[in-house]
Structure formats: C-alpha cells, structure tokens
Write a structure and sequence with these properties.
Oligomer: single chain
Strand content: under 5%
Radius of gyration: 20 Å
Largest sheet: none
CATH topology: Growth Hormone, Chain: A
Distance between the termini: 33 Å
CATH class: Mainly Alpha
Length: about 400
C-alpha cells in the first residue's frame, strides 16, 4: 500500500500563512507612530502605551487561547482571533481620540493576537516529534516574512493614501486570509487517523487529552518554569522595544521614514533565518544550548548605544539581534514540551507567552517614557543590554539545573 500523505505538512503550511499575516500586521505598529503623532500631536509614550497594554491583553489572552486549543483545537480558536483582529484594525479607520486607539488595540487586536503563538506552536508540537524544532522554525519564518514585507508595504500605503486607509486595508485582508486558512487546521494527528511525525505506526501514541506530563498548576510550582519565564520576559522586553522603536529611533538619527521602515524590515527578515538555523541546531545539540547561544547573539543590542547614523550599520546590528531572537523563539515550544510534557502544553506555553508579552509591553512603554523625559534612546538600549545579560545568566542556570524531565 502507498504511504498516505502526512497531513502535518498541510498544518505547517497553513500556520506559515497565519503567521505571515498576523505577525506582519502586529510588528508594523512602529510605522504608524509618526503619522498618528503628526495628526494628533500626542506624546510618544501615549501612543506606545496603546501597544503596551495591547501586549498585556495579548499575554492574558494567550493563556486562554492555549487552554482552549488543548480542548477544542486551533480551528475555532483562529476563527475567533480573525474576527477580533480584523474588526480591531478596520475600526482604526475611525479613530479620533486616544481612548478609541486604546480600546481597539486592547480589547480587539490584543485579545485576538492571543492566538499568534501558543495555539499555533502547540499544534505544531502535537503533529511533530522528530522534526519539531525545524517545523517550529518554519512557523517563525512565516512571521519573519510577514515582518519583512509588511512595514515597507504599509509605509507605502500610509504615504500614498493615509494611515487610516492603511489600517482599513490591513483589517479586511487579515480577516479574509485568517478565516479561510483556519478551515484547514486540526488539533492533532488522531483527528486525521495518523500519528505524529517521528512516531511509528505501531507505537502506543495517544491523543492530546491522554498524553503524559505536568498540569499547568504543577508546572507553575517548579523552579525551571520561573527561570525559563524570567529569561523569556527579558527577551520580550528587548524584542518589542526594538521592533516598535527602531523606526522612530532611526528617524531621530536623521534617517528618512522610508529607509527606517526598511531597517525594521531587515530585522524582521533576519529573524526567520535565525529560526530555521536555530531549529536545525536545536535538533542536533539540544534546546538549552541553543537558547543560551541565541541569547548571546541578542546582546549585540548594546551596540545601539553608539552614535550610529548609518542605516547600513543600524540594519546589521538589528539583523544580528533578530538572528538571536529567531533562535530563542524556535526553542520556546520545544523546551516547554521537554520540561513539562504535552499534557497541558498549550496552557503552559500560554504562560510563557504571557511573560514574553508582558516583557514586550513593559519595554514598549518604558522606552517611550524614557525618550519623552530624556529626548534620547541611549538609556533605553542600556536597559535592554542589562536585561539581556541577566537572561544569559538565567539560561546558564537553567542549563545546569539537574531535575527530572517529564517527557
């Protein structure tokens, strides 16, 4: 008999598309900052605060979305997210006051983006065992490609039409693509009469509800979880600080908005390359070692303290940082499975995503606040460097801890 086609590859392809449209629209917030400021005259911290609180709502939502994915699967979860995100971006066309900006980004976009990481990564983890990191890297590559394409495209829309028109276009596009893509998702191989890639046909593999591991409550009581979560918080702080503020930072250094958007695009384009290489390396040498090496690359952020005015040098620095971020992102799901098992993988991953988003929210707002007070980003990137150094120490400690692995 011919070997049946493994549906997991369809799952990976669909999630690649979802990541492209969701992450691309999410990380493009920075290109809207200057147009919104020019129209309303709002301070940078006020605008950045909307994204920060949106990140917190995303963080809280990711826990629920991960839990929901464990029980009913990603199809329903991503349909709900599509409705929320599409509606939120479309309503940005009508923004005239700060409370509207905050409402649409927090209650709609932020909650909808809770489906960006935990449900999708957890679904990949259920479909793949042997190639789990590589498939997760492909997922991240979709987000990176979206981050590469979206900022220049949206910048063109903003300056060709208006920032309101750009938001309206994003909302409709994201809604349509996500609704269609979600129809092809399945929670785990048992729903297609298959077993995960890497498991033999004769294995005693069980569906998601029966697999071993810790519950989310048990995981929260372990030292490993809090070390891992703290490192993820520091990484999230650094990532979103750069992602949201690199465009205003570049413009502040005399670089044009169009070139500044390309710098952001170069960062987003480097991240999937880091994810793919990180996934391949992690499958060879292990997740903990890959995490440590990737965080060391992120420490390059400290170079942004230098008085850089060249877009090429700035692009090179953020690309190195993004390369490291890609490596850390790709092992997040696999380390969760390795440390805590698959019994409550989606929910536990949701908690780690929560800490990542919480770090991002803090970084985005604090960076805007520091700039408003000092008119400089020097203290911002010094703080990022300190947090990444702390993450390196935590990663070393995590690697050295000797405790029972539940998988």
């Amino acid at each position: 008999m011919k070997k049946s086609f493994f549906y997991g590859y369809i799952i990976v392809s669909i999630i690649f598309i979802l990541q492209l449209v969701m992450f691309g629209s999410r990380v493009s917030f920075g290109v809207f900052i200057n147009p919104i400021t020019n129209e309303f005259g709002w301070p940078l911290a006020l605008i950045a605060g909307a994204f920060s609180l949106s990140s917190i709502s995303q963080a809280i939502s990711s826990i629920f979305m991960g839990w929901l994915n464990d029980r009913i699967g990603p199809r329903f979860v991503l349909i709900v997210c599509a409705i929320l995100i599409g509606t939120g971006f479309t309503l940005m066309f009508f923004v005239n006051t700060a409370w509207q900006l905050y409402l649409f980004y927090i209650a709609l976009v932020g909650v909808g983006m809770g489906g960006l990481v935990a449900p999708q990564m957890s679904t990949i983890a259920r479909w793949f065992v042997k190639k789990r990191n590589l498939m997760t890297a492909i997922l991240m590559a979709g987000g990176g490609l979206g981050g590469l394409i979206a900022p220049p495209l949206i910048t063109w829309l903003i300056y060709t039409f208006t920032w309101r028109d750009a938001y309206f276009f994003i909302g409709i596009t994201v809604f349509i693509i996500m609704i269609i893509a979600a129809q092809f998702l399945r929670r785990d191989p048992s729903q297609m009469g298959q077993v995960p890639d890497g498991e033999s046909k004769g294995s005693t593999w069980k569906p998601a509800s029966d697999v071993s591991g810790l519950s989310s409550k048990q995981a929260l009581l372990t030292k490993r979880f809090w070390l891992f979560a703290t490192a993820i918080f520091c990484i999230g702080f650094c990532l979103w600080t750069i992602m949201i503020h690199i465009v205003p930072y570049a413009i502040d250094r005399g670089i044009s908005p169009e070139i500044a958007a390309l710098i952001l695009a170069s960062m987003n384009g480097a991240q999937p390359l880091g994810s793919i290489l990180g996934g391949i390396i992690a499958d060879k040498i292990g997740n903990a070692k890959t995490l440590l090496a990737s965080i060391c690359l992120i420490s390059t952020v400290i170079l942004l303290l230098l008085p850089i005015a060249s877009p090429w040098i700035m692009s090179l620095i953020v690309m190195i940082v993004a390369f490291g971020l890609g490596g850390t992102s790709v092992v997040q799901s696999s380390m969760t499975a390795e440390l805590f098992g698959m019994k409550a993988h989606g929910a536990i991953l949701g908690y780690t995503v929560f800490t990542f988003s919480l770090g991002g929210a803090a970084g985005t707002y604090i960076a805007g606040l520091i700039f408003d007070f000092t008119s400089s980003y020097q203290w911002v990137f010094l703080l990022c460097g300190m947090l990444i150094f702390a993450a390196v120490l935590i990663a070393v400690s995590l690697y050295r801890i000797k405790s029972e692995v539940v998988v």
